[in-house]
Predict the 3D structure of the following.
Amino acid sequence: MKTIVKLQGILTLMAIAILNNPTSILANNHVDYSDCPKNAAHCEGTRTWKDGTVYEGEFRFGEPEGYGTMTWADGSSYEGEFREGVRHGKGIQKNDDESVYKGDFVDGFMHGQGAYHFACGHEYVGEFYKDNMDGNGSIQFANGTAYTGKWKMGKPHGEGKFLRADGSTITTTFNKGQRDGEGSISYEGNQLNGSWKNNKLNGESTIQFANGDQMICSWKKGALAKGVVTYISQDGSSAKKSIEDLLANPSSTLNAAWVIYLDAKELKTNGQDKQAMVRFQIAKRYCAKKSALQNHIRTAINELK
């Protein structure tokens, strides 16, 4: 018997679910041996079950209560506090897949503050509600991405911030694991302000570039809308231009390349890999050579191959 948190995927933005464990660790199991009698108000001893489960620690009237260690036949274990035969209080759960939870338990559930280390290297620290990540918490993924913010029933829900592997940060509202609401994408002095609907950029957005220029453009269902954009130079002059025009102009080439890179990232996030590959190739052609962005683009292209 154990408690395992399983990651199902990231973005949708992330969809995270948890296997609930029964509240009683003694359910449907028969005692083979116990040296603590049921009429003893306090006893320290050992109990074994026919399936190989072993408990060592404190008892109250024949049930684990107080501090003790439970070990299962598969090698998983729990060390910590018990009440009326179930995990209750502070404890450490080690599972046979090498995942580990350290924190609060209530009536057998991970509940309260805790830290869960996944076997694959991910790490969540924050609040739990009946075995689900729920409340405020942060998860660090093994690939360098991270999410910090609100959770509900194992999924990002509410205000949160997602750090991507390329160093860009998405700050927005999440709804059941998906971006949904106004927010921003920031990267090395550039910032897009817009809104998402069902995890897709949608509607008008304003982009402030690191060099002081700005762009007003539109998105439709997670892709940069075709047509012209409004480009405002740092001197205050503005013009309606196509992205192709901006790429051809040396003063706006790098900014336009970043917008195309954003477009490719959104397409990739929403499963449109072929279109994303085309946009990544364009961004690679026009971005600054030997730059961090160029390296990120190469990584993204390799992931799609």
Residues 1-157 form a domain with the Histone H3 K4-specific methyltransferase SET7/9 N-terminal domain fold (CATH 2.20.110.10). The longest helix spans residues 253-269.
